[in-house]
Amino acid sequence: MKSDRDIANDILARAIDGNIDAANSALSSALDNKHESFFRVHSAKYLVLVFCLVVLCLGIDAMDGHIIDHL
């Protein structure tokens, strides 16, 4: 797996060699991959946050007795 620095060096080398189309394609691909992985990482954090909030709200409601009254 290439690091960000290796990817940037590869894109720069392609641009310096005059292969601008390949450099643009590699840059676009790198940006798409970064965007997808960014969303996956942060979506897991948001999912955990929503789960914790639901548990907290259900706990507060159960302590208040409304759930027990409805059952």
Word description of this protein:
Helix 1 (4-16) runs antiparallel to helix 2 (20-64). This protein has helices spanning 4-16, 20-64, 66-70. The chain is mostly helical and 71 residues long. It contains three helices and no strands. 0% of the residues are buried. The radius of gyration is 24 Å and the shape is rod-shaped. The mean pLDDT is 77.
The shape, in one word, is: rod-shaped
The average pLDDT score comes to 77
Cα Rg: 24 Å
Approximate strand percentage: under 5%
Order of helices and strands: HHH
Percent of residues in helices comes to over 70%
Largest sheet: none
Helix/strand class: mainly alpha
Report the uncertain regions. none
Topology overview:
Elements: H1 4-16, H2 20-64, H3 66-70
Q: What is this entry, summarized?
A:
By secondary structure, the protein is mostly helical.
